[in-house]
């Protein structure tokens, strides 16, 4: 192995380790692995065999290789000596199962390294062992009841990784069975029983068909039931359902007073009842509860009462609590909700001090329930309103003392929901905060790309670490029912509730990721029609047909076109529009409709950043009147500033302005490395395969 590494990379193993261990992902704590851990890190390693060394006596090996041959070689060898943390092993296993960071292996390489070479002689593949029925070397079935497709590695010291491609499940077992002596041989039975227990905990599992599809619900291991519970009806069950079906115990056991950061999407998929309305019905007096029977919840015909208030108020993001506000607008600073009588406070664009005053001073809340449907695009403001909340409450979570009645830590419970764009594509320019002025309501954490591929709950875990919110006061309630990163919205079988007035369908969200940049230009993004972001154009265009033709002829914007006889299926329809409000209200606008045929609009969306660039370049190319400009005046930010805030950097605009002839693929490539870095970084926070 050392010989191969040196000849392929022109570097010794120790030199490669040095490079890897000083990389950004190592410094971030994400991919901490390598030979010869530094002295300061050795105490974190589990001790292994206690050998008796001449003239020294007993000596505990800790942070030093246990293998005798590797030890004699200075702890650096191709077969033994690598130390790794659990997060780095998780990313390693994910890369072998699903591809991507940090290994970027192609499918052929993964297949060769995980397929048995000679089953009559050995169960080994090239580099891995397997769980199949081949020649038994004593390691077969150490992965228990994982499928025969499982590939694995077993370490002499008591470590093990099992990866099952048929289910997408991997297990990692780290023990030091050789401490204080290597005469302990019970690990074989432990490995099998432990893996069987894991499989039982996450069942039912799904299997992949021969085309890579999925044919049954898959338990992710995050609260999934193992009793055949099918309350989701074969669909994904969001965190809010899990919370309700457990009797709101996670919420109510905290006691005290509950505030809710919610919007119109915060409904139960089965009843379509809003969580605030449901909780408000629990605010009945003891007498009312007794009248309805023990444990009953008031029906909607019973007036709300706050005499035993588990929920004391609502925190509203952009577009408002009930969703009746347009872009860049939130609810009034404070009002009383007619349906529930609860106080509603807008925290959209509020400072940390203002948010703390609302949560603690105005509402006296001790727990904040968060349930919001994000759309998977960094510049969408819902996640940043939540970030503001977490940042405002972080100091209290760290410093509040048990006897400090004025600075009580506020717990935060986040109910997770799917990313409608899926969780596999990570792309586009990242937020660059080398210029602090780029920190805005469109992005507040450096390094996050245009499409991040994370769920709201996963983002919550990442935000909490960044703002130093005490993890003991944060709870993310994960989805059940087998949510996977490969799912589009249709795959979840969940109803769609618009998170904002101009994203009425999953198809509009798919279009939004590519056409939202038009908002920050003099082109038109489709507001004022029934299909915003799926329709777009500009008054300076001379012909709708020319725009449609240009987009249909591009393999980037119409890559899914197929030949039907002699005619190619088109993706864009030439049209003209008269927006009923907002930009170009009352003006005839030449444009196109992005046609998404049945079954296309809510499927998982592939890379879209290139489409965004191609659409912008098409507008520039067809502008014969000199009307195309980078201008955010319609949103109160004149000039190119808004476009730069959307992109997270001025570099994208500068490429489009100064290098108009540069191919779209080259512009995309200029942002790929930073997006890949984030793809590696996010692994530590992912909850789903």
> Would you identify the regions where 5 or more consecutive residues have pLDDT less than 50?
16-31, 204-230, 284-307, 561-566
How would a crystallographer describe the biggest sheet? 7 strands, mixed
Structural class based on helices, strands and sheet pairing: alpha/beta
- Helix fraction? 25-40%
Q: Please state how the strands of the largest beta sheet are arranged side by side.
A: 11-12-10-9-13-14-17
Can you characterise this structure?
It is built from 22 helices and 22 strands. It is of the alpha/beta class. A seven-stranded mixed β-sheet has the order 11-12-10-9-13-14-17, sandwiched between helices. A four-stranded antiparallel β-sheet has the order 5-6-7-8, with helices on both faces. A three-stranded antiparallel β-sheet has the order 18-22-21. Helix 12 (352-362) packs across helix 13 (382-399), helix 17 (544-552) runs antiparallel to helix 18 (609-622) and helix 18 packs across helix 21. The longest helix is centred in the middle third of the chain and has 18 residues, at 382-399.
Task: Explain briefly what this protein structure is.
The protein has a seven-stranded mixed sheet, sandwiched between helices. Strands 5-6-7-8 form a four-stranded antiparallel sheet, with helices on both faces. It has a three-stranded antiparallel sheet with strand order 18-22-21. The chain is built from 22 helices and 22 strands. By secondary structure, it is an alpha/beta fold.
